[in-house]
Design goal:
Chains A, B: GO terms for molecular function: oxidoreductase activity, acting on the CH-CH group of donors, NAD or NADP as acceptor. Two copies of one chain form a homodimer. Chain A is an alpha/beta fold. Chain A is about 25% helix and about 25% strand.
Chain lengths: ~350, ~350
């Protein structure tokens, strides 16, 4: 008898307030077979699913959210890693490991063969890492520090939101390259965490007073690279501290995303771009998966991981049936590290 | 008997008002010989001298000007082209053609062997062109359009101050590469001139009303490259019209150079840099003379010039003794085209 399939479905949308276990149900479903594949489809065995804060938006059922909503009665979906058991697509073959943001919360499922990224087969590393240190936020850090800013030993890099998913990896990639690393974060705890990751200096941008002076104090020789996650006033202060030929890896401007025409911060120090020969380089990580940078990133960070030279906390929950509880725990901040659900058993994890 | 040397000297500084011929004197001086060279010096025969508006500042005698003043009783100096007749420097040899901004207004002179750029020997082109179409403003256009923005056929380029020394060459380099060229200039006459150089569309930024709308009208498919000479509000309007993966060659922000902390324009559209993956690339042309870009520029533009495929007006005055009158004519706008003084005779011009 073939093992039954398990699916996590939404019972009802939760517009506001805390969701509960009763808002989800675990269903036994039939096991999909390769015979039921239509053209250009893949049969996926789910290995790991990511549990992320943005999923609260999906639970709400709001149609105007920037993420697609979960639908009552349907299976949840999100970031995950799986292995292909069968394929009718020329782009994928049995055994390929894939990651993407439309993996179903189901042990096995059939999907159209689009929107997934093949990840290089690696040895000795749990595929869970592809949702963490080898995942999108880390690759974002790599693209900014390495591909765009072309960080060199001896340079000084300033990183805002340095304790975040991107920032903490940017710190470690820069330190590994011999840079002097300055981190800015929004609480004293986060500042301590940033220092524990190897930053040479760090400060609390909410309590430091004048930002330009705070950066100057932390980086008295000036800033060669600014990894911007926040934009606005902090970007302006960074511009005032840039050295000649400085590069700004422009990853995000979260301080401005809710701004209106009236409240948007207006940048005054852009005039420094010419005399200082600065480059401001906007990027979106998804443009880089098809470039050699991605394989270089996986190779470098996998090696650092195996050698214990990079820190990243994973919090593993075992069993898809425990996924909803993991999500509730996340909303209450009970996790310590990146939360993932291990769906396949150890035996099934073997790639 | 060896021919005597001629030198143009300043009689008195002219703080304000129109200078007259009486403010200059033409002196016969002794001909310098290679025997009088000290270590690391060059003996230069002047071929052409440039007559430029910025020289008014040098005449004033003000100590706080951004350019070094001319001194009463001393020889004038400025941009020029010369040929080396003798050298005690390992960097220069007899026959080298040099350009720089410290050439003396003298037929022959001795200088320390620093601050000059060697220019490639060219065939069939007057060295006067090195003060014009092969000079610094043109190379600035090349660096922005080619080296930094990497202009490609089919793209749309927007150029501000398009009728200026840099802009008019940027237009022609972009057209030669098959781009759609949009120029902005500050008078209707200048707009006509911009169109006559081949721009597909041009508008008067002083009378067009809303800048963002004016750019959108001129470039309905958006802007791939913005060659910025002005900064400020125009830059903001350009940012609002940039296509994905657009590049801004940041050459200058003349609209902001006299701004104070209070009057400086504050940029609101910088937030587009991330979602549109824009690059803002500040540069100063002097960083590029030592790169292969310079030889590539000379080769490309010399060829265009010989083939009649690039326009650039030169206004030649013959004889160093007529230099002061040329300067006065410039201040009255009597020149039509780039004003240069031909110092050496045709026979002496042979390189």
């Amino acid at each position: 008898m073939s093992p039954s399939n398990i699916s996590v479905k939404l019972v009802r949308n939760v517009a506001s307030g805390a969701p509960t276990l009763a808002d989800f149900k675990i269903e036994s479903t039939s096991v999909p077979t390769k015979e039921s594949l239509q053209n250009d489809q893949i049969l996926v065995r789910t290995l790991y699913l990511s549990v992320d804060p943005y999923m609260r938006g999906r639970l709400s059922g709001a149609q105007d959210s920037y993420v697609e909503s979960f639908v009552a009665g349907k299976t949840l979906f999100g970031l995950g890693v799986g292995v292909i058991e069968a394929s009718t697509s020329p782009d994928y073959k049995e055994g390929d490991i894939i990651t993407g943001d439309t993996l179903k919360w189901e042990c096995k499922f059939i999907a159209n063969a689009r929107g997934f990224t093949k990840i290089p087969a690696s040895s000795g590393i749990s595929p869970a890492n592809y949702l963490g240190i080898l995942g999108m936020p880390s690759f974002t850090a790599y693209v900014g520090v390495v591909s765009l800013a072309k960080a060199k030993a001896g340079e000084t890099i300033l990183i805002s939101a340095a304790s975040g998913a991107v920032g903490q990896v940017a710190i470690q990639l820069a330190k590994a390259r011999g840079l002097c690393v300055i981190g800015a974060a929004g609480s004293d705890d986060k500042v301590e965490f940033v220092k524990s990751l190897g930053a040479d200096a760090a400060f609390n941008y909410k309590t430091c007073g004048d930002l330009t002076a705070a950066i100057k104090k932390a980086a008295p020789n000036g800033v060669d690279i600014y990894f911007d996650n926040v934009g606005g006033e902090f970007l302006d202060a960074a511009l005032a501290n840039m050295n000649s030929f400085g590069r700004i890896a422009e990853c995000g401007m979260i301080s401005q995303y809710n701004a209106t025409e009236e409240t948007a911060y207006r940048v005054k120090n852009l005039i420094r771009v010419v005399p200082k020969r600065l480059s401001i380089l906007g990027f979106i990580v998804s443009d880089y998966y098809a470039k050699p940078d991605y394989a270089n990133f996986i190779t470098e960070v996998s090696t650092m991981l195996k050698e214990g030279k990079i820190q990243y906390k994973l919090h593993e929950i075992v069993g898809l049936e425990n996924g909803p509880q993991g999500l509730l725990d996340l909303f209450e901040g009970k996790n310590f590290g990146k939360l993932v659900v291990k769906v396949a058993s150890d035996a099934q994890q073997r790639l």
